[in-house]
């Protein structure tokens, strides 16, 4: 498996991501994604009729073939495909069954060949059902929410749905007037035509398909830095932050997110530059079970608006996923602790920075709770069913706290910074983290993390 390890951030931002060729499908989602090709760019034009929950789309994919192929397999759930072109021509055959769109090529392609797929499709999108409940395209009371993790992307567009396949995106959504569509990246155009409005976004940094999203609602757009000098925040690396929120919730949202700028500044200090050009928090009128992260944006439910620690930790958690999860994305789901353990640790960093409670005290409390729970999973390979288990989050964070106590604060933050910078926009695994941590600290990180990640019994935390 190759990686983007050698690409400097400025190059990675401009160049298409290097295609990755995993030797095998993701063991946690063996039915998802194809290792025969990598997508470089998705160009999506979506027409959404809200009342009827109808979606008609045109997806143009630029892909690179990774080995000799006679057919290409894409992930697409229960939508109807009306037309497929490959490099502008009809393929030999197209079939669509069991969530796979199989395109038999008129002539075989060799490794390294680039191919343009042009796919038109339509239907009434529904979430994908799986081990983790329903994920993907979801109707709200008055709008749409997309929560793609881990395999919901095929509910709304044809894709190569493996987390190691990262691509750039253009997403244009045409929907009912009076609604705002929010997608990943920068809004580059907004047009109105009779009773329809089109919202066009560009995500120029590589993005995994599960992080692609569309949110539609009666949202107004609030600028979080409103009234303050932009130059002052820019010089600290803080990017523009917006809240997309229904009018009646706007005041609540502003006061709940009032510390987010300080959170971003804290994380920039600890993890390095914020990876994307802006950050939007969408607040749904509906209550949501959990907040969700997508690339360059997060989604909170109206029930997450509060100044309480429980709400603030979630706001910090989702923001930190922009570094850990979105910029650095696991190549395989078994390494999910590299997202969730880090995001949970980011909560504790914020707790410390905001004067709520030192990270060490949060860690001690989490250790006590974990000690009382069954110790029957491996954080470094929890299995598909348990990959979102809270014990993976907390024990992953405790592994980082154990590392911090072992190497000291200065070396610990240097290695987090180096990790997020060296592998910016890349695909990562646990071995790569250990390599960076050992290079930075000369400490036996593998020895320490083995006990936290790859054995079941809960290790003692080093004293502090
Ligand atoms: Zn998370």
From TrEMBL:
SUPFAM superfamilies (alphabetical): Leukotriene A4 hydrolase N-terminal domain, Metalloproteases ('zincins'), catalytic domain
Annotated spans, Disordered: 1-20
Record bears the keyword Metal-binding: yes
Keyword Transferase belongs to the record: no
Xref: Pfam families: Peptidase_M1, Peptidase_M1_N
First-level EC class: hydrolase
Location(s) in or outside the cell: Cytoplasm
Keywords annotated in UniProt: Aminopeptidase, Cytoplasm, Hydrolase, Metal-binding, Metalloprotease, Protease, Zinc
Catalysed reactions, semicolon-separated: Release of an N-terminal amino acid, Xaa-|-Yaa- from a peptide, amide or arylamide. Xaa is preferably Ala, but may be most amino acids including Pro (slow action). When a terminal hydrophobic residue is followed by a prolyl residue, the two may be released as an intact Xaa-Pro dipeptide
GO MF annotations in UniProt: aminopeptidase activity
Stated name of the protein: Aminopeptidase N
